[in-house]
Structure formats: C-alpha cells, structure tokens
Amino acid sequence: MSIEALRDLLPSYAKDLSLNISSLAAETVLNDQQKWGCFVAAAYAVGQPDVVRNINTQAEGSGVSEEALTAARAAAAIMGMNNVYYRSLHLLSNHEYRTLPARLRMNIIANPGVEKDDFELWCTAVSAVNGCGMCLDSHEAELRKHGVPAANIQTAIRIASVVNAVSRVIAAEQAAQS
C-alpha cells in the first residue's frame, strides 16, 4: 500500500487531488525526512485509517528513520491539543485568557528527537490542517528565524492541504457506500 493505493481509492471527481498527491510525493523542495514527516503528521492529524496506513507504508519505505516518523506522529499529537487551545484563545473576545498560563505539558516541542526545524515544519503542517492561525504564525516565525525558506514552509502547507482533502474524500466515499 502506498500513495498509488490512495490514488486508487479516489473517485474520478477528485482527479486533481490524485494528481496533487502524486506530485507532492515526488516533491524535491523538502528532503525526504521533511517531506514524509509532513505527510505522516498531516495524515495523523486527520486520522482517516486508509490514509494513515498508506502514508505510513510509503514513508517507511522511503528510508525515513523510525525516530523521525515517531516525531512526526508526536507533532500531530501535541498540535492536536495546542491547536484547539490556542485557536480558542484567539477566538475568545476576552483577552484575559491569553495572559493565563496554559498549564499544558508540551515537552516534545523542546525535545522532539529530530532536528528542531523538521519538527517545526511538521507542527506547521498539522496547524494548517487544524486551522489554528495563532500556531501557524508561531511556527512559521520560528522556521523563518532559523532560515527556512518560504518555499519549504509553503510545501509543508501544500502537503497538509492535499492530505486533508484526500482523507475527507475517502471518508465521504466510504460513508456513502455504507
């Protein structure tokens, strides 16, 4: 199972998604660890079983280390929490909540077990899937501070958007068939 297997699950009306996921899998703007980490983190953020399985298989077959794949999954986990929390702070009219300590454990962000820039890229991808502007701004600023080019950040967001759309179409088609 792989990206090709995912493409086979997509209906004809989602041809653009099929083409996009294929071209992103061949993308060279990011190195393989960065690219497949984005794919894995985005797949785990959405959680559609077929997408998670196929992207895991493709990422594992691409030579990305188990440590990197674990860190990408950890990015999805921590940002699943942070995106809800910080998006809520942003949406609340009462700004007092922004002055209160979060009191949420986020140790993985300081010690992800991989290069910090890669982990930040994966957090950016998950934040795009989850729609948290506050987290997107924060992670993008951190990446830019470390000299990561805008094209790399955009590629992570492109991967996240396509994985999200593919996941939703596959889930909807499965729901329609049941």
Tell me briefly what this model is:
With 178 residues, the chain is an all-alpha fold.
Oligomeric assembly? single chain
- The total count of helices amounts to 9
Number of strands: 0
Helix content: over 70%
N- to C-terminal separation? 23 Å
**Alpha-carbon Rg, integer:** 16 Å
Feature tags:
74% helix, single chain, mainly alpha, 0% strand
Report on the structure:
The structure is a single chain. This protein is mainly alpha-helical. It has a single domain, classed as Up-down Bundle (AhpD-like), CATH 1.20.1290. Helix content is 74%, strand content 0%. The chain contains nine helices and no strands. Helix 2 packs across helix 9. The chain is globular, with a radius of gyration of 16 Å. The model has no long low-confidence stretch (mean pLDDT 97).
